[in-house]
Amino acid sequence: MLRFDPFSDWDGLSRSLLSGQAGSNRSPRFMPMDLCKIDDHYVLTADLPGVDPGSVDVTTDNGTLTLTAHRSARSEDSVQWLSNERFFGTYRRQISLGEGVDASRISATYENGVLTVTIPVAEAAKPRRIEVAHSGATRSIEPTTVDAK
Question: Residue 6 in 3-state DSSP?
Answer without folding.
Answer: helix
